[in-house]
Amino acid sequence: MVEVRNMSVLKGVFCLALGISVWSGYAQERVPVSGMEANTQYRTLLEQEKQLQHVQDSIMSLMETMRKSYATDVAGRQQYAQQILDMENELYEVRNRIGMVGNAISNLEQEYIIGNMNGPSVDPAALSTTQTETRPLVQKPVVQKANLVYNAYFKEQLSGSDYQTLIQAQEQETLPLEIIATYIVNYKVMDSLARIYESAERVEAEDAYTKLQTLSSINERLSDSLAQVWEYIFDNKTYIYNYLLDKMNESDLLADFGRQFQRINQRVASARDTVASEAVYAYPLRKKLTLDYEYALAGLLGYTQARDSIAKVQRSVSTLNFAFSAIDPQPRNFITYSKIERSVPSIYNSRNPIPEAEIFRYGTVYRIQLGVFQRKQPISIFRNVHPLSYDQLEDGRYRYCAGGFRELSEAQEALAEMKKIGFRQPKIVVWRDGVFESLAESDNSSAGDTFYRIEIAGEGDVMSDRVKEVIESTVPGKEISRTVDAQGDYVYTVGTFDSRETAEDLVARLSGLEGISAKILTLEP
After folding, report:
1. At what angle do helices 9-19 and 304-317 cross, to 10 degrees?
2. pLDDT tens across 445-483, in order?
């Protein structure tokens, strides 16, 4: 982050007037201040700034090449995306260094200019032939200061509290520039991330989107900070300047500034829905208005050094355009939809367990909930259907679902099939933009129910007639499904049973058959 410092307005003037090209693209070379050629430190800093600007331009040129390659070379997109992000970070560091060097240069220039501007004293009253009796007389300043509000007139004409407020507002003038500089760096990274999100594969795209959201949140806070800081500066300065102009009977100027203020507000309001930050967009417009106030006051009071310094800043501010478009990429749907199928043996086993459900940031997916259980369930109870997935609820229970459907009608057809093959209480559930909903009357409709199935081992790949006869005679009509256990042996599942007594009776009959083992599977919600 750019270090925030309270500096004098003159320092802020030079940062804005001489260093603003760092923000707006390829840098322009600084014009040295005449008379400072013999200062070795000054020449060294100028050379450092020039070299850093060349590095900046090289990085930006290479980034443009990388972005073109990213757009055309699909296979190498991931590599280009990482290189672009790395260069964004490198560019940020270079710009920080340019800012620090530029600040050091501005300090030297400030000291030189102030130390060499003690020219003849000027009587502001002598500059105007239309002065009326009601305009306050201004004493001839001993020394003029390029920083307008530090001239004697303001301290003499304002109350102690108003003068202190004006000085505090002046000292905060550099803060908006530093906030905006950080905002713009973040914005450029966000722009790169948005392009990655729009075209990359899911993992890379969602990672870019997460980073984009983080930077967006940071920039929102920067925008709020800018609005707060600038409101303090603008409101206090314009209040005091209006007071002084009114005291001078400059009604025409007051009326003109009032019209400018209204036009700026209308322009900002019309752009509100199209720009990324209203505060950032409005800053150069309102900054120009305060400079117009200050230029007029400097002229009326005969502060020529301050007027020349303000004019220089006015030229720089007039070139600024912070109408950055909002970065809000269209959400992408990465959901893979799939119908429910059955396969023998089951596609799931110890090496390929039932996966955890993917929760997608955007899009709607319907699934068939097969049950909610206290513990993870054996694969065999799910009747060889796939695809299956599970997620864990806040209370620790496990919800198992099958399939993934785009339309509710598709899910309704799958629900009917799940009931036909023996699932007791399947129901349709849905995730909309990552948020779970149940389409049943109650998510806890099966709470408290316990049911049972029988797992049979010891048979081969085909169930024998003797086992079939015992099952049919004991529990006629119950469905039998086959799957493979962790050892690769075939196991058979019979059920479902509401009564444990019925399940125990079948287990007792099957256990009487040689080579057969049977056990009860208890299924708890």
Report:
1. 40
2. 334 456 778 889 888 888 898 999 888 888 887 878 888
Query: What are the backbone dihedrals phi and psi of residue 496, each rounded to the nearest 5 degrees, phi first?
Result: -105, 160
Task: List, by residue range, all CATH 3.30.70.60 domains of the chain.
Answer: 451-523
Q: Please report the sign of the dihedral spanned by the C-alpha atoms of residue 95, residue 99, residue 100, residue 102.
A: positive
Per-residue model confidence as pLDDT tens digits over 56-85: 888 888 888 887 887 777 777 777 777 887
- Using an 8 Å Cβ cutoff, are 503 and 497 in contact? yes
The first and second tokens of residue 96, run together, are 């920080």
Residues 293 and 258 sit within 8 Å (Cβ to Cβ): no
Residue 457 near residue 491 (C-beta atoms within 8 A): yes
3-state secondary structure 427-454: EEEEEECCEEEECCCCCCCCCCCCEEEE
- Distances in whole angstroms, Cα of residue 295 to Cα of each of 50, 249, 263: 31, 17, 19
Question: CA-to-CA distance for 133 and 123, rounded, in angstroms?
Answer: 16
- Which residue from 174, 166, 165, 282 is spatially nearest to 223, judged by alpha carbons? 282
Query: DSSP string spanning 345-410?
Result: S-S--SSSPPPBPP--SSSEEEEEEEEEESS---GGGGTTEESEEEEE-TTS-EEEEEEEESSHHH
Nearest to residue 482, comparing CAs of 499, 500, 464, 469? Answer: 464
Pair of tokens at residue 408: 């509710």
Give the residues across from 452 on adjacent strands. 497, 522
Nearest Cα to Cα of residue 167 among 102, 236, 252? 236
**Per-residue CA distances from 145 to 33, 35, 193, 302, 365 (Å):** 18, 19, 47, 11, 69
AA identity, residue 93: E
Dihedral, 372, 378, 383, 389 alpha carbons, nearest 10: 50
**The CATH classification of domain 451-523, taken from the options 3.40.50.150, 3.30.420.40, 3.40.50.720, 3.30.70.60:** 3.30.70.60
Kindly write down the DSSP assignment for every residue of 447-511, as one continuous string: TT--EEEEEEES--SS--HHHHHHHHHHSTT-EEEEEE-TTS-EEEEEEEES-HHHHHHHHHHHH
* Structural contact between residues 484 and 334, judged by C-beta atoms closer than 8 angstroms: no
